[in-house]
Amino acid sequence: MQDILKSNFIKEIGDTAANMYRLGWNERNGGNISYMLTKEEVEPYCDINKTIRKLPLDIAFPELAGKYFLVTGTGKYFKNISIDPEKNLGLIRISDDGTFSHLLWGYSDGGTYTSEIHMHLGAHMQRLKTDPNQRVVIHAHPTNVVSMTHIFPWDEREFTRTLWQMCTECIVIFPEGVAVLPWMVSSNAKIGMASAEKFSDFRILVWALHGCTATGDSLDEAFGLLETVEKGAEIYMNIVGKGERHGIDDEMLKGVVEAFNIKVRDGWL
Ligand code: 13P
Ligand code: ZN
Q1: What span, in angstroms and rounded, lies between the C-alpha atoms of 99 and 267?
Q2: Is the Cβ–Cβ distance between 214 and 222 less than 8 Å?
Q3: What is the per-residue pLDDT for 29?
Q4: Residue 122 in 3-state DSSP?
């Protein structure tokens, strides 16, 4: 058996978590990551037939039966993930009926997966329906996105359009827009399912007064999406209330859309 601590996926998730921590998006245990792996990727590093523990789920995910995920642990600090992966991460396989998970490696202090596991699995489930290459869900607390939800209406179209107006790249990186959920109590199956619904046709979701979650085919892609939304929100927070603003108007945005041959959400431009 090869040493899992030397695998690419453990290094990648540790590096991503460290970058997020340094950007100030993941204070204390704030945020969580799930990374779907294939059986072929997992097999060289651990005995897939040996269940260390069974971890419960509050709702069943039969669509994800047999799928493998590397998931950050609940209460674990992002700054520590690359320092002690075995304590801060868990490698799981969803049971054949989708009602629980087999822990195959990790959570070595007796811990369990993130309290947002239902949102993560719900997001994977929905994104896989439209993107067969979907692999990553990243949840974070980016300061400017959360700040913006304090002063801006929780309206997806207006929130998205304002971000698009902040810098040229925004409409290029998220032409389908940003989903927004009103404030809810988090860390439960209810917010998980409300989020999953949004992920049926969005790759990124803002939770008002809480944070933001991005999905994608790779850690880089999901991270890049979060970075771009946070950049738009940072510019907005820098300029709001400081006099008249230019903004990239609809005519200018249409020029970008044409130049980059982008498909924008219908009726949002
Ligand atoms: P966990 O520590 O359970 O991952 O929760 C952190 C968080 O961001 C909750 O929304
Ligand atoms: Zn959170």
Answers
A1: 39
A2: yes
A3: 97
A4: helix
Instruction: Give the 3-state secondary structure of residue 44.
Output: coil
**Count of C-beta atoms within a 10 Å radius of residue 242:** 7
CB burial readout 80-98, b (16+ within 10 A) else e:
bbbeebebbbbbbbbbeeb
36-56 per-position pLDDT tens digit: 999 999 999 999 999 999 999
Classified as helix, coil or strand, 43 is coil
Given 12, 86, 116, 230, which residue is catalytic?
116
User: Tokens in use for 29?
Assistant: 């245990």
C-beta separation of 144 from 39 below 8 A: no
pTM greater than 0.85: yes
Dist. CA 178–CA 148, nearest whole Å = 13
30 lines ligand 1 (CB under 6 A): yes
Token pair in block for residue 90: 């868990």
CA 2 to chain centre: 29
d(CA 28, CA 247): 35
Pairing of strands 100-106, 68-72: unpaired
Q: Where are the beta strands (DSSP E) in the chain?
A: 32-37, 53-56, 68-72, 89-94, 100-106, 136-140, 179-181, 204-207, 211-216
Confidence of residue 143 (pLDDT cuts 50, 70, 90): very high
Atom of ligand 1 nearest to the CA of 29: 2
Annotated active-site residue 27? The verdict is: no
What's the rounded mean pLDDT across residues 150-177?
98
Q: Which ligand places an atom closest to the C-alpha of 90? A: 1
Q: State both tokens at 235.
A: 């510019």
